[in-house]
Amino acid sequence: AQKVTQTQTSISVMEKTTVTMDCVYETRDSSYFLFWYKQTASGEIVFLIRQDSYKKENATEGHYSLNFQKPKSSIGLIITATQIEDSAVYFCAMRENTEGADRLTFGKGTQLIIQP
Amino acid sequence: NAGVIQTPRHKVTGKGQEATLWCEPISGHSAVFWYRQTIVQGLEFLTYFRNQAPIDDSGMPKERFSAQMPNQSHSTLKIQSTQPQDSAVYLCASSPPGRNSDYTFGSGTRLLVI
């Protein structure tokens, strides 16, 4: 069964710095998809960025990028030039690339606090 | 595009009563998912539909929870004989075809059972 683990419960950094959030996953599949989502204080959950396991290049999207280390089953989220509005809970998620495996398995989340 | 619409936003029920939660997915999205979020358990998968057909309900507490998708424009999650431990935020999400597709989440229904 697939499993996603985020060991950092909470991170606090100063505004305009770079932060990395960790995520490791377990799967028996050789092909899978990894996602990061953000949940704001209002409860809204929004998609940020995706990494396809068969792609060697790390995905980037605006000031979000990923550090994909397949041998370590690790997918870190990097946020550069952090802003106050980046304060939120960040979830890592995985979906296996097999028939019937449409659901995402989520980690427990990392709370990010951006200090002015 | 109004996104995924969930109603009601908040619901308070007495122990033992029934609660029905509604979800309207994004038009054209083929899959609809239900999750439950609590502080302790995080985001727990409950069930999902693809093209209105139930595919996986492995996360559903079998006795009191049921979900339906009678047409492509809405899905319901029904909880019978609600218990205090059912208190949570219930989230609906939809996604277009393709396993690399991301979810679009609704705003959730906060259920409180007293």
Please describe what this structure looks like.
The complex is a heterodimer of chains A (116) and B (114). Chain A is globular, with a radius of gyration of 14 Å. Chain A has no helices and twelve strands. By secondary structure, chain A is mainly β. In chain A, 34% of the residues are buried. In chain A, strands 2, 5, 6, 10, 11 and 12 form a six-stranded mixed sheet that branches. Chain A has a four-stranded antiparallel sheet with strand order 3-9-8-7, with no helix packed on it. The mean pLDDT of chain A is 95. Chain B has 114 residues and is mainly β. Chain B has strands spanning 5-7, 10-13, 19-24, 31-38, 42-50, 53-56, 65-71, 74-79, 88-95, 104-105, 109-113. In chain B, strands 2, 4, 5, 6, 9, 10 and 11 form a seven-stranded mixed sheet that branches. In chain B, strands 1-3-8-7 form a four-stranded antiparallel sheet, with no helix packed on it. In chain B, β7 (65-71) and β8 form a beta hairpin. Chain B is globular, with a radius of gyration of 13 Å. The model of chain B has no long low-confidence stretch (mean pLDDT 95). Chains A and B meet through β5, β6 and β11 of A and β4, β5, β9 and β10 of B.
